Amino acid sequence: MVMTNYMDLLAANQPWNLILFMVIPVVLAESLVATEFYTTYYNGKAAGWKAWNHRLGIAAGVYFALVVLYLLVNVVPGIHWKGWADQLAIVAYLLGIVPLGAIALMEMGVTGKHLTEQQRTLRHFGLLIGFLVVSHVAMVFGMVEPTITGWQPMPAQMHQMDHMGHM
């Protein structure tokens, strides 16, 4: 079976790529969602949850920025695309930096200084929803077998590719 570059990346260098490119970003983002819910639910009585939310927002944005930078410099330039689903998976994954980066910038006080608490919460939720959408698009299209979208491998490519084994 031929896999997309997204899946090749996650499958290479087990378990490290899976941990670095999937587990850590997902745990940070989902923890951020959870603390956002608790902060909203306890409405003003959630200083502890709010502090965690603040730290997680910065950590998620900074970590994912480093991941995206690494991928753009070391992986993306060498990719041999396997059709549109492969491209969509990688681009959607990389676009995750937009919402997570925006959250980190808000938490560091670079943007959103003028927002009320309610506006900040709404923007946070909107950005988190945006991240969940692009990350799920990346996961779904990353799991697609590239040949069902019309991509045809060269005969030598039918065997498991090892072009990402160095990561």
What does this protein look like?
With 167 residues, this protein is mainly alpha-helical. It contains 6 helices and no strands. The mean pLDDT is 91. It comes from Acidaminococcus fermentans. Keywords: Membrane, Transmembrane, Transmembrane helix.
Give the helix/strand layout.
Elements: H1 5-11, H2 16-41, H3 47-74, H4 84-95, H5 97-107, H6 117-142
Protein name: Permease
Transmembrane segments: 16-35, 56-76, 88-105, 125-144
InterPro entries: DUF6803
Keywords:
167 residues; mainly alpha; 66% helix
Mean pLDDT: 91
List how many beta strands DSSP finds.
0
Number of helices: 6
Helix content: 55-70%
C-alpha Rg (nearest Å): 18 Å
Cα-to-Cα separation, first versus last residue? 21 Å
Total of domains: 1
Return the string of H and E elements: HHHHHH
Oligomeric state of the chains in view: single chain
Strand content: under 5%
Structural class: mainly alpha
**Overall spatial form:** elongated
Largest β-sheet summary: none
Q: Name the poorly predicted regions.
A: none
